[in-house]
Every structure is written in structure tokens, then in C-alpha cells.
Amino acid sequence: MSFRLKHCVWEITLACCFSCRYCGSAGGRARDAELTAAECFSVADQLAELGCERVSMIGGEVFMRKDWKEIVGRLAGNGIRVNIITNGFLFEDALVQELKKLNIESVSVSLDGPREVHDKYRQEGSYDRAVAAIAKLSKSGIPVSVISTLNAENVKTLPALYETLLDSGIFAWQLQACSPMGNAANGGIDIAFDPREVIGFVESRMRQAPFLLGIADNIGYFSPGEGSIRGNMSGKAYFAGCRAGITAVGIDSVGNVRGCESMYDPHFTEGNLRERTLREIWEDPDAFAYNRKFDAGMLTGACAACELGAFCAGGCRSYNYFVHGKLYEAPRCARAMNAAEGSAIK
Fold first, then answer.
1. 239: which residues sit within 8 A by CB, 6+ positions away?
2. Per-residue pLDDT tens for 93-125?
């Protein structure tokens, strides 16, 4: 079976102006021997050769790398659409104009709650800077979205953040669960929340919101409204299992390749681009085996007994691994929670 690469999440540097309490990659200082500009250009060419359609560029903080524009330009020159994910702290007017010239597909700004909540987990003043960046991007005509990383505390502030975003000009808002990796594994953050609360929040607002509103792949799964809660209200947008190594790949700043950049553990490294080409890694018959060689017999816990287990494949591999170490068992599945409560009532 062949697998077609469509999407890459590429961490071009680990350097960051923050050291957020829940940063999965523990960003702050650049890694030793990060890929050179020439090596990055080669990566961009290799992605194009494999037919990659979109790159989500992350850090650290992308704009901490001096040659980020040249890397974006190389990707765009190869016909690859580029989205940049940022904390929004470094947005001077000149930067916005540079993004406009580069014809960036979109920019996603991290915003995790009202000012006091957002600043608590990042740094003082970061909320105001992020909101200002969103306004500048929207005013300039660059499509801008918001990504919120949820934990037990800030999930309660979603209604307040929704009110803030109503007139912000964003085109989408994505809600994702905080995973206990990197700084979040050591920061004393309570990551547990009921996914049904978030699903209910989305369902109650997604049809009147002036932007797309949805949940990421590490929240769910298969509550009654599943087909409409992931930013697509068609009713048919069902979660169909983790895409790591199936249609997606992650690359870090020193060239390590994983199925997903949220799989931040050496256990998931399939190779390094200084040793093998991306094609050699991607087409290796033994690579990404946790997904490419999946069968329903690998499911454990409630997922093993679920009639949708083979389709859902047990949810998000990264979240599963970092929460409880079981790749094929979703620790907080909305469907399983509903089923368990139904059984208890009977």
C-alpha cells in the first residue's frame, strides 16, 4: 500500500521568546546544529517532490529564525501552501507587510483565554500582543485563525473568549487539548477536562459564530454531532483515525522525521534528513508502523469493545501516548463516557 503525503508540520527552530508552561516542545533556546538554510531549501524541495500540499510552520517561534522568509519563499515557489503558527508577540507592522508579500495562506495565533488566564501560562503582556497581532493581520487582509490549548482551568473560560473573538475578524477558531509532554509534563498543569463540555460549547455556537469553530483531533470522539464539530458543518466530517504517517508528517529543526510533530518522543523518530532523504523515510515499508500496520485487534480498553473502534482507530496517537502510554485507547472519549454513564444508569 502506498501513502500520499499531503500535510507537513515543520518546526524550523526551537528558539522562542517564551517558555510557556505547557509548551509541548519545551521551546526557548534554539537546538544545537539546527538545519542550515541550504538544508531547509532541500527539505522544501523534497516535500514538493512527494506532492505535499500544505506546510504548517511552527517553532519555537518561527520569526526567531532570521531566514524564515527565504524558507517560506522556497516552499511557496514549489507550489506549497504555507500556514504559520505563532504566539503573536513579535508582530510589528513591517512583519505583517512581509507576510503579505509572501502570500501566506494563513496565520494562526495562539490565544488560550482571557488576559489573566492567557498571561498566566505564557508571560505578562502576551495576551495584549496576541490580540493586537490578530487585529493587524485581519486589517491587512491576511487570513488569521486562533488556536486555543485547553486544560482544566481555561476550558471554563471558553464563553468569555468567544465573546472577545466575535468581532476579531478571524476566519476560524480551533480548540485542542493540552497534552502532557514537554513543559506540560513538568508544569503542574491539570490537563483533565470532560470533552463533552467542549463539544457542547462548539455545538451551541458553531452555527451562529462568524467564523469556523471546531475541535482538533485529540478531542472527541463520536458523540451524536461528530460529523459537524471539527470545523466542517456538513454532517459528514467524521474523525477517521490518526493521520500521522498516513497523509501527514512532522519535521523538527534538526531534521528528525515523525508522523506528527506532537509525537515528541524519540520512540517515534523514523529517521533524520541528514542521513536519509524524506522519500526514503516516507516510503520505508517499516516506517510509521503504529498507524500503517494498525488493525482493530490492537485496540485496548473501551476502544476494543466499541463498534466504531476500527474506524476511529482509538483516537489521537500522541495524546494517548502522553496521557497513559496506550497508543490504541483514547483516555477521554466522549462516546465511551456516554456509554459508561448509560450503563451506570441502567
1. 217, 220, 221, 222, 226, 230, 312, 315
2. 999 999 999 989 999 999 999 999 999 888 899
- CA-based nearest residue to 8, from 80, 86, 100, 116: 80
SS3 148: strand
In order, the DSSP letters of 25-54 are T--BSPPTTPPPHHHHHHHHHHHHHTT--E
Query: Would you say how long the chain is, in residues?
Result: 346
Q: Output Rg (C-alpha) for the chain, integer angstroms.
A: 20
Per DSSP, the chain holds a count of helices (H) and strands (E) of: 13, 10
pLDDT in tens, 13-50: 999 876 666 665 666 788 999 999 999 999 999 999 99
Spatial distance between the Cα atoms of 271 and 282, rounded to a whole number of angstroms = 9
Strands 54-58 and 7-11: parallel
3-class SS letters over 259-279: CCCCCCCHHHCCEECCCCCHH
Candidates 46, 36, 135, 146; CA nearest to 93 is 135
Banded model confidence at residue 340, pLDDT cuts 50, 70, 90: confident
pLDDT digits (tens, 9 = 90+) for 202-242: 999 999 999 999 999 999 999 999 999 999 999 999 999 99
Task: Please name the amino acid found at residue 221.
Answer: Y
Of 5, 4, 26, 30, the closest CA to residue 253 belongs to: 30
Separation between Cα atoms, residue 86 and residue 88, nearest integer Å:
5
Helix, strand and coil content of the chain, in percent to the nearest 5, comes to 40, 15, 45
CA distance 335 to 21: 30
Could you give the strand order of the β-sheet that contains 54-58, starting from the edge strand earlier in sequence?
Answer: 212-215, 172-177, 144-150, 106-110, 81-86, 54-58, 7-11, 248-251, 256-258, 271-272
What are the backbone angles phi and psi of residue 318, rounded to the nearest 5°?
-65, -50
